[in-house]
């Protein structure tokens, strides 16, 4: 049996084993996917051991994304751009390929699952940390008319805009300086973790704006609730993105693309 795992610390809450086990059953792939708690100082030795004993691929979560970057031998172009990886694959020659499937997961959830077109649209991306960096290339590949990165610390947004300027019309802004309205607003800040809202002026919203929170939780996220309270009609949380980034990793490993809609529906149902 081919072995896969999600590695992190802590790891108890991870939904990845459930998601990948469902994908495997659905596509009749003979594999075992587990969650592995790795001690903070033992990433390399844990992975060496895993890949030596039947391990074919891993997903990497907090706090090991940097470790995974350093562990890999080769990178997909989008992982290279993101400078962050969430998926490793052992290739036929034994070398380790790194990918970042978060951005394509976000784009697929928006465009395929929710029918939200990004092409020609005005997009606002909140935050300028690792999560945002990871999704910029796939978002810009959709060719939005304009993509603005707003961040509390402007310099970080400016750096990102500069790094991705060759891929499309991308600019940086402070929250207070935002003007006009947006078709799609994506919250990639970690503000919700501390129960905070990014300081976004409500003037950027219209009833037709789609608000997407890359976080998800059992209740409506604080950002999505704020959006609803200000008249937005369509809000989406990050559960679909989670399943879609997993599907992309599964496809990289197994060369078969699992169906995601029923898996998303099951996870949604369990949260109630
Ligand atoms: P992640 O890996 O989740 O992206 P990160 O790299 O630490 O984590 O980035 C966190 C992002 O959330 C940053 O853009 C941060 O803004 P700063 O760059 O100004 O620090 C943003 N963020 C965190 N808490 C926030 C808050 N309460 N309000 C607004 N933005 C916040």
Would you write up a description of this structure?
The chain has 272 residues and is α/β, with parallel strands linked by helices. The chain has two domains: 131 residues, Leucine Dehydrogenase, chain A, domain 1 (Rossmann fold); 135 residues, NAD(P)-binding Rossmann-like Domain (Rossmann fold, 3-Layer(aba) Sandwich). Helix content is 38%, strand content 20%. It contains ten helices and twelve strands. Strands 2-1-3-5-6-4 form a six-stranded mixed beta sheet, sandwiched between helices. Strands 9-8-7-10-11-12 form a six-stranded parallel beta sheet. α7 links the parallel β8 and β9. α5 crosses α6. The radius of gyration is 19 Å and the shape is globular. The protein starts with a strand and ends with a helix. 2'-monophosphoadenosine-5'-diphosphate binds next to α6.
Secondary-structure element pattern, one letter each? EHEHEHEHEEHEHEHEEEHEHH
Number of strands: 12
Report strand order across the widest sheet: 2-1-3-5-6-4
Provide the helix percentage.
25-40%
Heteromolecules bound: 2'-monophosphoadenosine-5'-diphosphate
The count of helical stretches stands at 10
Distance between termini? 34 Å
Instruction: Indicate how many domains the architecture comprises.
Output: 2
CATH topology of the largest domain: Rossmann fold
The first-level CATH class name of the largest domain: Alpha Beta
In short:
This protein has helices at 16-27, 43-52, 65-71, 77-82, 102-113, 130-141, 154-163, 222-229, 239-254, 261-271, and strands at residues 2-8, 31-37, 55-60, 74-75, 87-90, 96-99, 122-126, 146-150, 170-173, 184-187, 210-213, 234-236. It has 272 residues and is α/β, with parallel strands linked by helices. The protein has two domains: 2-100 and 240-271, Rossmann fold (3-Layer(aba) Sandwich), CATH 3.40.50; 103-237, NAD(P)-binding Rossmann-like Domain (Rossmann fold), CATH 3.40.50.720.
């Amino acid at each position: 049996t081919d072995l896969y795992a999600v590695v992190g610390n802590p790891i108890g809450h991870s939904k990845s084993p459930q998601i990948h086990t469902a994908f495997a059953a659905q596509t009749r792939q003979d594999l075992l996917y587990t969650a592995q708690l790795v001690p903070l100082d033992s990433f390399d030795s844990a992975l060496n051991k895993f890949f030596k004993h039947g391990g074919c691929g891993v997903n990497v979560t907090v706090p090991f994304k940097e470790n995974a970057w350093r562990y890999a031998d080769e990178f997909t172009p989008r992982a290279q751009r993101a400078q962050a990886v969430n998926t490793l694959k052992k290739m036929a020659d034994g070398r380790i390929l790194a990918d970042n499937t978060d951005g394509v997961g976000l784009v697929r959830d928006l465009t395929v699952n929710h029918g939200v077109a990004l092409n020609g649209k005005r997009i606002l991306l909140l935050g300028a940390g690792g999560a945002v960096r990871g999704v910029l290339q796939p978002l810009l590949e959709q060719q939005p008319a304009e993509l603005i990165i707003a961040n509390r610390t402007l310099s970080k947004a400016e750096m990102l805009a500069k790094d991705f300027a060759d891929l499309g019309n991308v600019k940086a802004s402070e929250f207070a300086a935002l003007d006009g309205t947006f078709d799609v607003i994506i919250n990639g800040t970690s503000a919700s973790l501390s129960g905070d809202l990014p300081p976004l002026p409500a003037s950027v919203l219209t009833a037709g704006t789609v608000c997407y929170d890359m976080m998800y939780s059992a209740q409506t996220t604080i950002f999505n609730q704020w959006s609803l309270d200000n008249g937005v009609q369509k809000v989406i949380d990050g559960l679909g993105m989670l399943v879609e980034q997993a599907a992309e990793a599964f496809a990289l490993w197994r060369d078969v693309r699992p169906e995601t809609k029923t898996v998303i529906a099951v996870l949604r149902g369990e949260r109630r």
